[in-house]
Design brief:
Blueprint lengths: L3 E6 L2 E5 L14 E5 L5 E4 L7 E7 L4 E7 L4 E6 L4 H4 L5 E6 L5 E6 L3 E5 L3
Antiparallel strand pairs: 1-2, 1-3, 4-5, 5-6, 6-7, 8-9, 9-10
């Protein structure tokens, strides 16, 4: 299994297939998380009053929701069961959109949009 690393530093998350690709002086590593797919896009859930950061990590066929505390430590993770292979062939994720003022995320594929409730 290949581990794709997310590097968390103050105010941003970056991706790297290998942490050695990035200059160590560029990052203060607060946390790192391995995901089982190549991350293509990160979408933070907008929330000005939250003590935590919630981010959707999107891949071509996968999406995982990660929750970090204000210090950058991973608190929770939830893999969304997209089941794109079971639904049809040639399906892939185009983007992820957080639904305003909710704990819902819309997964936009090349054929349809599906809304998931995260952390029920």
């Amino acid at each position: 299994m290949r581990c794709n690393t997310l590097l968390i530093r103050r105010g941003m998350i970056s991706t790297a297939s290998s942490p050695t690709v990035l200059e160590e002086s560029d990052f203060v590593r607060l946390s790192s998380v391995c995901v089982d797919f190549q991350p293509l896009k990160l979408m933070f859930r907008p929330c000005e009053t939250c003590d935590q950061s919630i981010v959707a990590v999107m891949g071509l066929f996968d999406c995982e929701i990660l929750v970090f505390d204000r210090y950058g430590a991973l608190q929770h993770r939830q893999a969304l069961q997209l089941m794109l292979n079971e639904i049809g062939s040639n399906l892939h994720v185009r983007t992820v959109i957080w639904i305003p003022n909710s704990m819902q995320v819309a997964i936009v594929t090349n054929k349809f949009v599906k809304v998931y409730v995260v952390f029920k």
